[in-house]
Specification:
The chain has 111 residues and is mainly α. The chain is 49% helix and 7% strand.
């Protein structure tokens, strides 16, 4: 594997927009951003936000759930083209999604 991502239980969320929290202030092509949102399981959450990607998270993301923070971390790593994901504790749903996403990533990379 080229890049390995560690998704910690305590995910830092910037007091900034949904977009900047995903891209970490980098220029990311819209398709790549939307693919990461889809694969990380954030699409429905995004659709529920009145400001979409311009929604502002505050106080280290106190206005979003721990599961949403974890999905943001997953999306960050997908955007960074990580090959493998490590996580402290996975919920059943996250474990299934991550397993599927890792398989997809490996198939896309032909690993």
């Amino acid at each position: 594997f080229g890049k390995i991502a560690n998704i910690d239980q305590n995910i830092f969320i910037f007091d900034n927009t949904f977009r900047n929290n995903l891209t970490l202030y980098r220029d990311v092509p819209e398709k790549k951003l939307m693919d990461a949102i889809e694969k990380a399981g954030l699409k429905k959450f995004l659709e529920l936000q009145p400001e979409g990607l311009d929604t502002v998270f505050k106080d280290n993301g106190n206005n979003i759930s721990g599961g949403e923070k974890s999905r943001i971390a997953i999306a960050r790593d997908l955007i960074s083209d990580c090959d493998c994901f490590c996580r402290d504790i996975l919920s059943v749903n996250s474990r299934i999604k991550m397993s599927n996403n890792c398989r997809i990533k490996c198939q896309e990379s032909k690993i």
